[in-house]
Amino acid sequence: DAGVIQSPRHEVTEMGQEVTLRCKPISGHNSLFWYRQTMMRGLELLIYFNNNVPIDDSGMPEDRFSAKMPNASFSTLKIQPSEPRDSAVYFCASSQIMNTEAFFGQGTRLTVV
Amino acid sequence: QKEVEQNSGPLSVPEGAIASLNCTYSDRGSQSFFWYRQYSGKSPELIMSIYSNGDKEDGRFTAQLNKASQYVSLLIRDSQPSDSATYLCAVANFGNEKLTFGTGTRLTIIP
């Protein structure tokens, strides 16, 4: 298995632009997580899905952030409009339901200028 | 009080010695405990999981769990320079996939 696949690996965008991050979980995993990592706040859970259904989005910082999982093999995290304080590394992770051993993708380093 | 606390370090250990990393958690309902290793610029990588009180060994790594004290630790024997990384402690409740991470301890193995 190729593991969790994220794209793009790096994204540089101007403030106010829309940013879409993509994730393909490990085949057979039915829980998917979006995390954000910064030096100041560490690794924060933004949202997670079970069987494509959002279960907990309490970590989503504000309405500018949205996430979807239209099918078992694809998820997006969208920021619209983006702001410089959104600059961080965004990780996607997946696991099997009821098994909290989560595996991470390589991350997307987002820079908003 | 943070839910999962770790000493941020840096922790410096001579090559060949034992590195000891510690983590405390606040939620007594926590049932699942994990250690992730993260190299600079890379993603977190799961290295150990532990669910019951006591020790669990895997190669040079030993995880120790004490639920009464709400304490989990990771020991790395015969430390190698390649062990230099940030180690993240993560905790979850039983049947809940949501992981809560500590801020990590940066470990440096000195040759």
Q: Would you give an account of this structure?
A:
The complex is a heterodimer of chains A (113) and B (111). Chain A has 113 residues and is mainly beta. Chain A is built from no helices and eleven strands. Helices cover 0% and strands 55% of the residues of chain A. In chain A, strands 2, 4, 5, 6, 9, 10 and 11 form a seven-stranded mixed beta sheet that branches. A four-stranded antiparallel beta sheet of chain A has the order 1-3-8-7, with no helix packed on it. Chain A is globular. Chain B is mostly beta strands and 111 residues long. Chain B is built from no helices and eleven strands. In chain B, strand 7 (61-66) and strand 8 form a beta hairpin. The A-B interface holds A 31, 33, 42-43, 45, 48, 50, 55-56, 91, 95, 97-107 and B 32, 34, 42-46, 49, 88, 92, 95-104.
List the helices and strands and how they pair.
The complex is a heterodimer of chains A (113) and B (111).
Chain A: E1 5-7, E2 10-13, E3 19-24, E4 31-38, E5 42-50, E6 53-56, E7 65-71, E8 74-79, E9 88-95, E10 103-104, E11 108-112
Parallel strand pairs in A: 2-11
Antiparallel strand pairs in A: 1-3, 3-8, 4-5, 4-9, 5-6, 7-8, 9-10, 9-11
Chain B: E1 4-6, E2 11-14, E3 19-25, E4 30-38, E5 45-50, E6 54-58, E7 61-66, E8 71-76, E9 85-93, E10 100-101, E11 105-110
Parallel strand pairs in B: 2-11
Antiparallel strand pairs in B: 1-3, 3-8, 4-5, 4-9, 6-7, 7-8, 9-10, 9-11
Please tally the helical runs of chain B, counting DSSP H or I stretches of 4 or more residues: 0
Radius of gyration of chain B: 13 Å
Order of helices and strands of chain A: EEEEEEEEEEE
Helical percent range of chain A?
under 10%
Q: What gap, in angstroms, lies between the N and C termini of chain B?
A: 36 Å
Radius of gyration of chain A: 13 Å
Reported for the largest beta sheet of chain A, the result is: 7 strands, mixed
For this structure, the quaternary state is: heterodimer
- Unreliable segments of 5+ consecutive residues of chain A: none
Number of strands of chain B: 11
